[in-house]
Amino acid sequence: AFKAAVLIQQWYRRHVARLEMRRRCTWRIFQSIEYSCEQDQIKLHNFFSYLMDQFTPSSSKERDFISRMFVSGESYKEAELEKYCDYESIEVPDSYTGPHLSFPLLPDHATALLEAFQQKQQLHARYVLNLLHETRKHLKQLPNISHVSTCYSEEITVCGDLHGQLDDLFLIFYKNGLPSPSKSYVFNGDFVDRGKQSLEILVILFTFLLIYPKEVHLNRGNHEDHMVNLRYGFTKEVMQKYKVHGKKILRMFQNVFCWLPLATLIDQKVLIIHGGISDTTDLDMLEKIQRNRFVSVLRLKKRKESSGKPQIQAINGESESGTDAAPRLSLQPQTAQAPSTANRREFSRWLRQTVQEQIDTCRRLVDISESEPEELTYSSMVSLKDADEPCWTLQEEWKQVLDILWSDPMPQEGCRENKVRGGGCYFGPDVTEKFLEKYSLQFLIRSHECKQEGYEFCHSRKVLTIFSASNYYEIGSNRGAYVKLGPDLIPHFVQYQANKTAHLLTMTQRQGFLVALFAKISRVEESAFRALREKLFAHTSALISAFKSYDRDNTGKITLSNWATAVESVLRLGLPWRMLRPQLVRSAEDGMLEYKSWLDDLAMEQRSQEHIQSSLLEVIYRNRSNLETIFRIIDRDHSGLISFEEFQQTWKLFSSHMNIELTDDGINDLVRSIDFNKDGNIDFNEFLEAFRLVRQCP
Fold it and tell me: Where is the EF-hand domain (predicted)?
């Protein structure tokens, strides 16, 4: 009996170890695919920004269109924004049965919203715009770094990413209680995208923020960015839920996002930021910058930089950085040739005109309106107070914001560029230690990364990651968590899974636990490998080229080791392909793989889902997310349709980059040929149908 018990124990341990290995591989697949999508987003944005940098508009109409392509809420002045988003002109019909809001808000309003959203009701557009208007006014008075003390409440609850998963927010409130004078919350960014109820989450959080401004604190995340929203779903969600007033609501959301605080400091000892830090993170700078300038953190980065300092043309018109410099402000008048000084009156008139033009140019560059006085905000008061302090370039300020929103910790020492995400940096334990010592902090709390248990310590428990969206990749893939801090600043964690099915998997009996664990891992694993096979199919052409480089005798076969090397060289996901091979390669004789038949099997699997030509299906699978993002960028009014004018102006941008000369008549013929149903607009299906992969011959 003793020997049998030992054998059972050994079998059990081996089985659990295998399950753990499978669980970790599945996790790596999900995370690698997620980060590669973020890389694609940043590459796509950099490409469009490059086109805009190189494009010279031929008319004021083209200049206005191009300037609006990536510009959002900040292009509106205060009065213009209020006029554009005038909620008072929107009437609430008598047939409306949803919740009603009146300001100032009361706790009963929050309760009514929670009940309405649980019943799948929708808040009227008038109330949404009114709420955003009041939220924006409140946020503008807040500092960049919110200061919170445990002296005023027994404990402070910190929540991580929610990503539009309203059930997780409901579960947090059910377990921990609603915000109140004795229950403080810090929500650490990434409220939106991916999930289907981002808007409801924001409405609830903004409502509690206005009711309890001292107890509810919101940090900005990297997804509170209108360029990221174009790809990951929030823009689409708003336009689907509010078809009439969706554009106004989006505009207000985008402007509110840029006023969200960047960090929260608890008792001067615990810093809460969304992403992380770098070796150049400076809290003094973060406290003083004008955060509302960074409507999209992805927007500022330039491709043409010869030095870290801004390039200014010298008085004589020659650049210190050479002729290959980026566009810059010229200090020399260039409006017209100066008249002779003999005619004093004419010379004086010319001089006044030139100076005024330069002043107007400077005003446009720094976005200052002559007719409208700037509203006094916390950031502007700090800037006036510290006018004698060293000033920083916009590039330096942008780098600070980018790093705290996009960075991730790493186990190795040092600080290096985060190439996996495409933005921010990786920071090591030495960077953390120096930062904490410099600012007399105990530890950092950040979010930004999904963790299987909902939270994770690293850097000798000096960095805590908290993630509150459970079942993030798939049902059962991860738990959500939040952390509570009392006056002793010792973290206490609460974990959960919002989906009811996940709760049924918890069993007390060991046998039942194994069955449930195996079923959960199998389901999540199946979803991960399905996504990975789609990724492989989307790169069929590149994989064939890579396989042929190892098949020099044209046998149609390669070794499994070469298969793993070739796949990683194409996909660059950093996955253990040799370990994943049994799930991806069904048959291999004598350690050799017939790669063409393997790719045919992948194509057959995808074609069974969508009846499209294989070569075109490969292209669409590989580029669908990028195509959808491009479509939304061109669709400036978010109507779901590209107008002929929007297409024409964007095509001019592309043609100038590709050195293709095309007349306006030629562009008109092209756009009419894409408009298959001849309704005067291009919808997404027509846009996809017109898309073809063109391989340029050298």
Answer: 538-573, 622-657, 662-697
Tokens of 334: 């260039």
**Run of H or E including 310:** none
* Three-class DSSP category at 537: helix
pLDDT in tens, 365-411: 444 444 444 455 655 555 555 545 556 788 889 999 999 999 999 99
DSSP code per residue over 314-337: -TTS--TT-TTPPP--B-S--SSP
Both structure tokens of 157: 């609850």
Q: Do domains 99-300+416-499 and 617-694 have the same CATH topology?
A: no
Among candidate residues 143, 161, 217, the one with its CA nearest the CA of residue 186: 217
pLDDT, residue 301, reads 45
Cα distance between residue 157 and residue 183, in whole Å: 8
Which among 576, 573, 578 has a CA at the least distance from the CA of 561?
578
Instruction: Please tell me the distance from the alpha carbon of residue 84 to that of residue 63, in angstroms, as a whole number.
Output: 22
Q: Any idea which residues carry the catalytic annotation?
A: 223
Rounded Cα distance between 27 and 247, Å, is: 37
Dihedral angle sign, alpha carbons of residues 37, 43, 46, 51: negative
Task: Please measure the distance between the N-terminal and C-terminal CA atoms of the chain and give it in whole angstroms.
Answer: 75
CATH number of 505-608: 1.10.238.10
Q: For residue 267, give both structure tokens.
A: 């008792």
Q: Which fold has domain 99-300+416-499?
A: Purple Acid Phosphatase; chain A, domain 2 (3.60.21)
Going from the C-alpha of 552 to that of each of 547, 558, 590, the distances in angstroms are 9, 10, 18
pLDDT of residue 184: 95
Q: In the numeric block, which tokens belong to residue 12?
A: 């059990």
Q: Residue 264 corresponds to which amino acid?
A: T
Q: Are the C-beta atoms of 135 and 210 separated by less than 8 Å?
A: yes
Cα atoms in the 13 Å half-sphere on the side-chain side of 289: 27
How many residues does the structure list for the chain? 698
**Whole-number Å distance between alpha carbons of 283 and 273:** 11
Number of CB atoms found within 10 A of residue 628's CB: 16
């174009």: which residue's tokens?
Answer: 230
Reference 560, options 542, 533, 586; nearest CA is: 586
Fold of 617-694: Recoverin; domain 1 (1.10.238)
Domain ranges within the chain, ordered by starting residue: 1-56, 99-300+416-499, 505-608, 617-694
Buried b (16+ CB within 10 A) or exposed e, 380-395: eebeeeeeeeeeeeee
Using CB atoms within 10 A of its CB, is residue 488 exposed (0-12), middle (13-18) or buried (19+)?
Answer: exposed
For the record, the structure tokens of 581 come out as 């091979």
Q: Catalogue the E-assigned strands of 68-194.
A: 145-148, 156-159, 184-187
Write down the pLDDT at residue 327: 36
Q: What is the pLDDT of residue 249?
A: 93
Greatest alpha-carbon pair distance for the chain in Å reads: 116
One-letter amino acid for residue 57 of the chain = P
What are the helix and strand counts (H, E) for the chain? 25, 18
510 contacts: CB under 8 Å, gap ≥ 6? 12
Query: Which two three-digit tokens encode residue 393?
Result: 């370039």
Cα distances (Å, whole numbers) of residue 219 to 115, 121, 243 = 25, 27, 29
Backbone angles phi, psi at 263, to 5 degrees: -160, 165
Low-confidence ranges of the chain (pLDDT < 50): 71-75, 301-336, 341, 365-374, 387, 501-511, 513-514, 517, 610-621, 692-698
Angle between helices 560-571 and 577-584 (to 10 degrees): 100
DSSP assignments along 178-233, one per residue: --BTTBEEEE-S--SSSSS-HHHHHHHHHHHHHH-TTTEEE---TTSSHHHHHHHS
Q: How far is CA 68 from CA 63, 254, 320, 362, 695, in A?
A: 9, 14, 31, 19, 31
Q: Facing residues of 184 across strands?
A: 156
